[in-house]
Amino acid sequence: MSNNFNFAIKSISLDENYHPANSTRITTNFANLARGERRRENLRNALKMIDNNFNSLAGWDNPKGDRYSVELEIVSVDMDIESGGQAFPSIEVLKTNIIDHKNNERIEGIVGNNFSSYVRDYDFSVLLLEHNKGKSNFSIPSGFGDLHGNLFKCFINSDIYKQNFNKLPVICLSVSDNKIYTRTENQHPILGLEYLPNESSLTEQYFKKMGLQVRYFMPANSVAPLAFYFFGDLLSDYTNLELISTISTMGAFQKIYRPEIYNANAVAGKCYQPNLKNLDHSLTQIVYDREERSQLAIEQGKFAEEHFIKPYQTVLEQWSANYA
After folding, report:
1. Which of 68-77, 202-211, 251-260 has the lowest mean pLDDT?
2. What is the DSSP letter of 306?
3. I need a labelling partner for 105 at 20 to 30 A (CA). Which of 230, 245, 312, 321 fits?
């Protein structure tokens, strides 16, 4: 059955001229920016933030802070279950590429960074909500995240992934506002100060089923830790510039989307609990509709249910059980 899964990869530049494709999840960070009257200004400002962020972290041999710029590609992965059937938009990630203006060189960055998936929308915004409707105690359905995790691992292990990307993905998310993070003595020259959470979260468990482990670091120019999800060894599998490309890209997006945490006016202390109601923060000059985003997650989860989960339910369940 696994032979019947065909993945196709498409990529498009994320620059100030970017327009979201019809198949793009509109809740995706960059797609949300690229809409409305200020779309071009939004994109230009976000990309400038990323470049400034990168140069401040890559300060060696960079006296004017303008040696590097980051180019972003949106990588969309379509999945075809039955050869020649209807392709379903399964995963969307960001790929960073680094331009070194001093050496006139283009350096491959990291794939992953941002992560969006219709099936994850279905799991969190449809399945989980329905499972807990009318219940006083929150619980998780059995096998929650198994199918999504196996689909992701199947893609990462596919020939098409290996042909297109040299390294495994790193995904960078915001921290959870219902956990407490404690700073450790461990400090990395690029990733910064390491934090440990007081307990595991549902997101951590979900990503673990995708084969990913997590560590939390607060880089030098950040005011709160970021969650880095990865395979292998985060600290030795990637170069400094590769890590900086992820930190600068996702650090900028988090300042826009989670300003209460990542654009707060106070830096996280030794014991830190993120607070989305924190009023002591600054706003970027970038317009973003957070409420619309949560509503769209439900719509897109229902789209996945209608066009993917229900039509192929038996086939998917059998494949996932065998894949494990």
Report:
1. 251-260
2. I
3. 230
19 or 189, greater pLDDT: 189
Strand partners, 193: 187, 218
CA dihedral 189, 200, 230, 293 (to 10 degrees): -100
Proportion of the chain in helix, strand, coil states, percent, rounded to 5: 35, 25, 40
157-165 long-range Cβ contacts below 8 angstroms, 24+ apart: 158/5, 158/7, 160/7, 160/8, 160/9, 161/7, 164/9, 165/95, 165/111
From residue 173, how far is each of 4, 204, 251, 258 by CA, in Å? Answer: 32, 11, 9, 11
Q: Residue 279 burial (CB < 10 Å; 0-12/13-18/19+)?
A: exposed
DSSP 14: E
Determine which helix (DSSP H) or strand (DSSP E) holds 216, and give its type and residue range. strand 213-218
Distance in angstroms (rounded) separating the CA atoms of residues 198 and 180:
6
**Which tokens belong to 97?**
């590429």
Nearest partner of 202 among 237, 221, 178, judged by Cα: 178
Strand-strand pairing, 271-272 and 6-14 = unpaired
